[in-house]
Amino acid sequence: MRLIERIKSFFSTTKLYMGAQRVGKVPYRFLRWIRGDYTLKNSELLFSAVSRIANALSAMPVRVYKGSKVYEGELNDMIAYSPNASMTTCNWLRTMEACRCTYGNAYAIKTFDETQKLTGLEILDPSKVKPFIEPNSKELWYRITPDEGPSFDIHNFYIFHVAFLSTNGYEGINPVSVLLNTLSYNDEIQAFGAAQLEKGINAQIVIEAPANLGESQKAQTIEALRNTWKKTNGNLLLLESGLSAKTLNLSPIDTKTFEIERISRSRVAMVYNLPPHLMGDYSDTSFSSQEQQTLEFLTLTMTPIVTIYEQEFMRKIILSENRKKGLHVEFDMEAILRADSATKADVYQKAIRGGWMRPNEVRSQYNLAPDPNGNELLVSRDLIPLGYLCKNPSLSETQNSTASAAPSDSSQETEGKESG
Fold first, then answer.
1. pLDDT tens string for the chain (420 positions)?
2. Separation CA 109–CA 111 (nearest Å)
């Protein structure tokens, strides 16, 4: 109870939940916590991998649904458009993913107004948050260390937490620490390549002598050539006593460094569960179309991440009472699976003729106004309303018998020839 008493003495206005029991209050001054900013540094490989994932996630529209329809309410406004007063959902998701992919964890604290109404999700600095299991209640708590003032603990109900791969179930492993050796080695290779490039740009001169020269003769010859070169600003070189000169151009970068960089990209891709071709490694790409590559990325990389966010939204934001009403959060992953125009037209045509999409539903995908006659499901045979055909089965039987009795074009042509 001492832990709870400490929190009670610190909290002042809104109520804190511990499971289903209210045991304390959250300070209103804490709810106006100023969010910190985070940046990726020192590694273009790391930046490339994280930006791929963060941009893909932020490009997916996220909505609150009730059944199959978008829920028109404040919860949907907060999740779909503005999780807090200073960020859009796109920017919020990108920032959360940048934290998760560099620290292993991303945290946001639920904020409330004076009436205990949820107002947003403020992102916290992951380096200042430490999850732990409270020994008495066996529940998950978070110890937050602000820039100023003492650290304090808060129950998991108030923390929106998405983690990288974890071994204890509540604290993610930092992927950057896993890649430390790879990133350090890649930096050394880049430095080596820069040194090679420096040598390759500055062409060197080789002087050939007709006989062996002593040390003093070598020094005198080199000094004379240098003086002549400087006096003429590199435009003239005087060669005497059978000397000859030629330039020695080194290759700017050893071709083996490209192979080493490819291995580094492949290792980063493996840690972040990315297809190698998204990191610039096309050595083992077998897909013939961009759509197939995107589908692989969505299936292997983004689906697990989307599931983590959806379940955390359901558990921490939607809550049990709204889940019982049929509310749920869903990311639209189809939004980034952009097919070409011909493929989309073929899919929608089959959807309408197959009776599982209405014409107005297809029109809405192109931002076209609904048609008054476009709200019916159609069947492929004669494109009549499916409901009408179900209510009048005799019509289907009549059409089938008429179709079987009607002569074909080929038979009519044959009869015409015979009569002729």
1. 444 444 344 444 333 333 333 333 444 434 333 333 334 666 788 888 999 999 999 999 999 999 888 999 999 999 999 999 999 999 999 999 999 999 999 999 999 988 888 999 999 999 999 999 999 999 999 999 988 888 989 999 999 999 999 999 899 998 888 887 776 666 665 666 666 555 554 556 777 777 777 788 778 777 877 787 777 776 666 666 667 766 655 555 556 666 777 777 888 888 899 988 888 777 666 665 666 777 888 888 999 999 999 999 999 999 899 999 999 999 998 877 665 567 778 888 888 888 888 999 888 877 788 898 889 988 766 566 777 777 877 766 655 555 455 454 444 444 444 444
2. 6
User: Tokens standing for 288?
Assistant: 């013939």
Q: Which residues contact 304 (CB under 8 A, 6 or more apart)?
A: 273
CA angle 14–18–21, rounded 5-degree value: 85
Strand partners, 26: 14
Please classify residue 265 by burial: count the beta carbons closer than 10 Å to its beta carbon, then call 0-12 exposed, 13-18 middle and 19+ buried. buried
Decide if 207 contacts 243 (C-beta within 8 A). Answer: yes
Contact assessment for residue 40 and residue 50, using Cβ atoms and an 8 Å cutoff: yes
Q: Which helix (H) or strand (E) holds 96?
A: helix 89-103
Distance CA 16, CA 257 (A): 56
What single DSSP character describes residue 407? P
- Torsion sign (Cα): 156, 159, 162, 164: negative
3-state secondary structure 368-388: CCCCCCCCCCECCCCCCEHHH
* Among the listed residues 316, 306, 329, 363, the one whose alpha carbon sits nearest the alpha carbon of residue 71: 329
Is the CB of residue 16 less than 8 Å from the CB of residue 26? Answer: yes
